[in-house]
Amino acid sequence: MFITNPTRAKHFAAMVLIGDGVMALIHPTTDANAWNKGPKVWRNLMRGLAKRPTLTRAIGAAQIVGGIYWALKQEDAD
After folding, report:
1. pTM score, two decimals?
2. Would the N or C end of the chain have less CB density within 10 A of its end CB?
3. Residue 52's Cα: distance from chain center in Å?
């Protein structure tokens, strides 16, 4: 999938933030492990989050709020 429209890309990014945030709230360990790919620093961070489900849930809640805020700001701009 290749998104060339900037508005559509922002909408998609907001959806990803909200969706990943919901997944982090529902099952924080699985969500953190799903992102356990890439550079060693990133993998270490994800392993740490997998061991701290409360922190992962808090980050997930922040992602949801941020994604909703971003989506609402996009509507204001239209």
Report:
1. 0.83
2. N
3. 16
